């Protein structure tokens, strides 16, 4: 079970949500686990740099659905019970400081959707023979 900790809207309209999945695992030691997610709704405007934005939008919609989801997990082990709240807030603040300039840039939604499309197009190699 996760609990929504915070939700922030960036300048480019991307909504970043922080959810807590922390637990106590031994004595007074806790595992701090925070899921970070950004749901990027697909639209024709996302593909303005493409030659045919409508066709690219349809391809992305068929491959990814209505939205692309950026997800990261922030995790820290061995946190004492008295430091859980402070550590959790520090982890969120550090993520905001280091990642919000990237996530909040106007190019982020288009670039992220393009990278997700590249992952979908890339063939999977389940077996790689040794030379």
The description of the largest β-sheet is: 5 strands, antiparallel
Low-confidence stretches: none
Rg, nearest Å:
19 Å
Task: Provide the residue-averaged pLDDT.
Answer: 91
Shape call: globular
- Strand runs, count: 5
Number of helices: 3
User: What is the string of helix and strand elements?
Assistant: EEEEHEHH
* Content-based structural category: alpha+beta
Distance between the termini: 46 Å
Tell me the fraction of residues in β-strands, as a range.
Answer: 25-35%
Helix content: 25-40%
Topology, element by element:
Elements (H helix, E strand, L loop, with lengths): L2 E7 L5 E6 L2 E4 L2 E13 L11 H12 L2 E14 L3 H20 L4 H14 L10
Antiparallel strand pairs: 1-2, 2-4, 3-4, 4-5
Describe the structure.
By secondary structure, this protein is an alpha+beta fold. It is built from three helices and five strands. Strands 1, 2, 3, 4 and 5 form a five-stranded antiparallel β-sheet that branches. A hairpin with a 5-residue loop joins strand 1 and strand 2 (15-20).
Overview in brief:
The chain has 131 residues and is an alpha+beta fold. The chain has helices at residues 53-64, 84-103, 108-121, and strands spanning 3-9, 15-20, 23-26, 29-41, 67-80.
Notable traits:
single chain; 131 residues; alpha+beta; 3 helices; 35% helix
């Amino acid at each position: 079970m996760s609990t929504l900790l915070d939700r922030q809207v960036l300048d480019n309209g991307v909504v970043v949500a922080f959810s807590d999945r922390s637990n106590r695992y031994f004595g007074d030691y806790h595992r701090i686990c925070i899921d970070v997610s950004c749901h990027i709704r697909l639209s024709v405007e996302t593909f303005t740099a493409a030659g045919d934005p409508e066709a690219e939008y349809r391809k992305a919609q068929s491959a990814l659905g209505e939205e692309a989801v950026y997800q990261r997990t922030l995790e820290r082990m061995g946190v004492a019970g008295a430091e859980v709240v402070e550590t959790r807030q520090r982890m969120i603040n550090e993520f905001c400081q280091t990642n919000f300039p990237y996530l909040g840039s106007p190019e982020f939604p288009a670039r992220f959707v393009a990278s997700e499309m590249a992952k979908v197009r890339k063939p999977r190699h389940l077996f790689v023979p040794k030379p």
